[in-house]
Amino acid sequence: MGLSAFVTRFSLALVLAAGSVSAWAQSFKVEDIRVEGLQRISAGTVFNYLPVQVGQTIQAEETGEVIRSLYRTGFFKDVRLEREGNVLVVFVQERPAIAKIDISGNKSIDKEPLLQGLKDIGLAEGRVFSQSVLDRIERELNRQYFSLGKYGMTLESTVTPLERNRVAVNIAISEGESARIKQINIVGNQAFDEDDLLDQMQLSSGGWLSSFTKEDQYSRQKLAGDLETLKSYYLDRGYINFRIDSTQVTISPDKKDIYVTVNIHEGDVYTINDLKLAGNLVVEPEQLFPLIDISRGEVFSRKKVLKSAEKISELLGDSGYAFANVNTIPDISGDQKQVALTFFVDPGKRVYVRRISMKGNTRTRDEVLRREFRQMESAWFSASKVKLSKDRLQRLGYFEDVSLQTKPVPGSTDQVDIDVSVKEKASGSIMAGLGYSQSEGITFSTSINQANFLGTGKRVGFAFNTSDINTHYQLSYFNPYYTVDGVGRGFNLMYRETDYDDADIADYATDTGVIGVNFAIPVNETDSIGLAFDIENIEFKVGADAPVEITRNVQTGDDFLNYKMSLNWSHNSTNHSFFPTRGGKQSLYGEFALPGSDWEYYKVGYRHQRYFPIIEDGLTLGLKIDLGYGDVYGDRTEFPFYENFYAGGPKSVRGFEDNTLGPKGHDSNGNQLNDTHVGGTIKTVGNMELYFPPPFDLVGQSVRLSAFVDVGNVFNDSNYKFDVDELRVSAGLAAVWLSPVGPLGVSIAEPLVSKAGDQEQRFQFTLGSAF
Fold first, then answer.
1. 389 pLDDT higher than 60
2. How far, in Å, CA of 29 to CA of 15, rounded?
3. Which of 149, 449, 633, 678 has a beta carbon 3.0–4.6 Å from 461's, enabling a disulfide?
4. Could you give the angle at which helices 302-318 and 220-235 cross, rounded to 10 degrees?
């Protein structure tokens, strides 16, 4: 119903009311109230809104307010009053209710958020229908689609009457094609080329990936972001008076092409001539000045200024000032082209944490989260401890997302609450490895693990391998908090039958059984020491074609009982368990067959991974190194061949088959056997990888791509000594997808440095499925 119709009906109602009132002649005492015309709305609802009650005397001039009160409810499209004796009769005509809302043609805006938006405005199933609300929604939808660059969109709303005073609302949307950016011009730039400035912008006139990246689709929000990026580009390079004078967006008559013109004023480059601290300095200035990244004489940079203010705020946050505010006040000297900066510190009130609340952990127990927290309740707030707590929760690997929110306590000036929200992911997994080579064909291995058993944070695993090469069973258990101080303890039980001949390594087989116990002892927040004790029994079956490296040490039926101790130090400062972008992992380990073992030996190794963010939420550089060395002591003169290091494969040097690099075996006459691979006592593997998100956001944050270079090999101290010229090198592309069925890793590598006899495998992948 339009405004004119509403005014007409409302005026008529007032006229009728006036006529009724004139028939009343004068005021009267209401002995009863009767409501006529109700269908869905109860009489009690009407009585609640009526400004007159039984027993009250109603004046003639009050009838207009009675009618207006009922109109204001929005329930009725017609209201009139009559008097029957001393009974007030209210005649109403209800507005129809919305029985159904159907939206079609909406491709760019999801239906569920759209329906929720309609509900927030007032259009939802079960509510009273209002044409004015529908008109408002049409205007808002047009605005939304225009902001997405869909200027050719059309919208048609249909209201269909139904029985029982109901209506069905249908909104048919024809989105049309998004207008494409034909050209972007920047006018007024002198210090920088237009192409360099356009490279900073998200919008562009398109390229060969535009159908995926949508970079040539105009959006008002994207343009606003690009203008801010352009402003930051100049302000970070000293142009403190830079401004955008105007922006013109022109659309072609067919509404398909858009032309954008940005007029800018660069101004002059300014340098820093003075730096000051002011305000309530609750921390000594000597602690604050080193946090300022910019110095006198430097070109002004807004990025450095903001970073300096952020560092000062973080230091104050560590001292309990959770809501510290640091404002930078510039004093610009236009004549000298210089600026003096004053960092004004407002620490606010020092606060302590009243309560830490957890939500979202439907499977994981609260204590599993709380024991990772370094910020305590009833203690002074510390921003660094809160950040460390978040990192520790993310490193658990139980959660897809972890967010922390600090909120002031209502009615208190010195208390805050911390709300922890987590999104759990499947902690159980069935991991599978799948590969293909001409020698082995298809191989399959799998393991079942519960990293968060029954929500306790304990790890339970059962691994098995049923390929032609291995029959492997392993049962493991680990409690990371065996003591309240964080000392972990676990047990391991393993049995494995391995036929190395089927793996084209060498003609022998082993049956191995291991039982052991292991401990993890925390040193600090990022370092821990691991200690393990194992009893291992190995029985050998040696074939007729076994290389001399094996036959001179063991024969069929020989078995060895070894008492092994492992000691390792590990460091983990990464910010994420799956896709880290900063921090690193280090591990220094040693494995020793103790005196009294049948084969006394030792192995030592060092692994290091480091991640450097190049572009925030973009490029990350990863460096990895894996070194190992083994030797014997006691009566034995040769290192146990079954403990040798191997290289090659998806987790080592990609582009080469698993475990095929390094020394080859020999027959009894000293001739090399090219199809046997005996490994080595020296391992050197390195990797450099550049990680980046996919160029188009189709799968959110579950995919990471990389370009890599791998280098490495294994050596020994006799006939294949370490030589840089013997290192193998490969390069290629890789992708990891945290798919609904588990992580999928794929790599395509090209061996850059290889030798005759190397077994190359350019395409490799591993697959896992979650439950």
1. yes
2. 22
3. 449
4. 90
